[in-house]
Design goal:
alpha+beta; 4-stranded antiparallel β-sheet; 8 helices
């Protein structure tokens, strides 16, 4: 027997096919399904209503169960595991993840599937509890208030000075982001922070030459 045959035999014996009973499979899938549903409902609570995607939430459950099944299957035979690695390596996903929070939930679901498939349900439960506590605490931490956008349409090209004077009475810091002058009219876009939005709008709309005023807030990124 050559060294090559000895090495091949030793390698295959070290990764011999392990028998996985139906009870083990059902238990792993049941725990994974429970945790996947938990992730599904937590994703619904944490995601803003405007950007919530039910299909993405359902995919989180599916990814968890599929990953669990894959890990269970890969434990049964080294040949199958190598084949799956080769097959999965050529799969390319082109769906863009627009929200970083979605990416976190996706990796969470994959991790739960891997851990449950490896038979370490306790770690999966601890991970889920730790993730929940961390998400809730970080979500409640105060951060800088998002600025408001004030849009002013005036029929007088010289109205900018008056508008800025009125804004200064309600906002300590503001900046003119855009000004557009055409046909004897001016359109202004200002970024500001104020707790007296209604009073500010009324004061600016009462200025001479101002035709319309809009004050908008957003829940997007905050720049420092």
């Amino acid at each position: 027997m050559s060294f090559k045959d000895i090495f091949k035999k030793s390698f295959l014996e070290g990764f011999a096919t392990s028998e996985i009973t139906g009870r083990v499979v059902l238990t792993a899938l049941a725990i994974a399904a429970f945790l996947a549903l938990y992730i599904f409902f937590l994703y619904r609570v944490m995601t803003r209503k405007t950007f919530y995607s039910k299909n993405f939430g359902i995919s989180l459950v599916g990814v968890t169960l599929i990953t669990t099944a894959l890990i269970l299957t890969m434990q049964s035979s080294v040949v199958i595991s190598l084949g799956m690695v080769g097959a999965l390596s050529i799969v390319r996903f082109r769906t863009a993840i627009k929200d970083p929070l979605d990416l976190m939930f996706l990796f969470w679901s994959i991790s739960i599937g891997i851990i449950c498939g490896a038979g370490m349900a306790e770690i999966a439960v601890i991970l889920s509890v730790a993730m929940t506590v961390g998400i809730l605490i970080l979500d409640k931490l105060p951060v800088a208030k998002a600025p408001m956008i004030l849009v002013v349409n005036a029929g007088d090209p010289d109205a900018e000075e008056r508008v800025c004077g009125a804004v200064a009475g309600y906002a300590k810091h503001y900046s003119v982001k855009s000004r557009n002058i055409s046909a004897g009219a001016v359109d202004l876009v200002l970024e500001l922070r104020t707790a007296q939005g209604a009073e500010l709008v009324r004061a600016v709309s009462a200025l001479e030459g101002v035709q319309s005023v809009s004050l908008m807030s957003h829940d997007g990124e905050v720049s420092f």
